[in-house]
Specification:
two-stranded antiparallel ribbon, 3 helices, six-stranded antiparallel beta sheet, about 30% strand, alpha+beta, elongated, single chain, about 160 residues, about 20% helix
Length: about 160
């Protein structure tokens, strides 16, 4: 789970910094020795079964697709980024340290509304305010007015 969180947050940080392409250290674990860190950096276990980081990467690619980084999110213990593209906009956020309150209404850019929340593995989450940990959460956004195409504006830091 920790590797999955680091993977998503690292890739989002790289996109925000304009660093592309980005390379993950290892596709598959090199071994099974619990005392050898080098054996556990992969997205797959040595037998080829996916680790949580594999599913987190799969979700990131599905959720963001060809969207581009638009702006940062930094608000009341929450950080992340907003992405936009032809299919709309999404925010990807996590708690800076420990836990924070996820208040979607304070993170959704003007002209947009929340269409759903998804955890880093693609599981749908209930809408509304909730506790946010250091695992990334996707905020699916849609224009507040049908047919509108607002540019995503960054939420102001609080």
């Amino acid at each position: 789970q920790a590797q999955a969180r680091y993977l998503v947050r690292t890739l989002v940080s790289a996109l925000a910094a304009g660093v592309a392409p980005n390379v993950w250290y290892s596709w598959k674990d090199a071994g099974t020795d619990p005392g050898n860190d080098q054996h556990h950096f992969g997205l797959l276990r040595p037998n080829g079964t996916p680790k949580p980081s594999y599913f987190a990467l799969q979700t990131l690619l599905k959720e963001l697709g060809a969207m581009r980084y638009a702006c940062p999110v930094q608000r009341a213990g929450v950080e992340g980024a907003i992405f936009s593209g032809a299919d709309g906009a999404k925010a990807l956020v996590w708690a800076k340290a420990g836990a924070a309150l996820l208040e979607p209404a304070k993170l959704v850019p003007s002209g947009w509304k929340l269409a759903g929340l998804v955890d880093m593995t693609g599981k749908a989450l209930p809408g509304g305010d909730q506790r946010l940990g250091n695992a990334p959460v996707y905020l699916r956004l849609r224009p507040a007015d049908a047919g509108a195409r607002p540019a995503p504006t960054c939420p102001r830091p609080a």
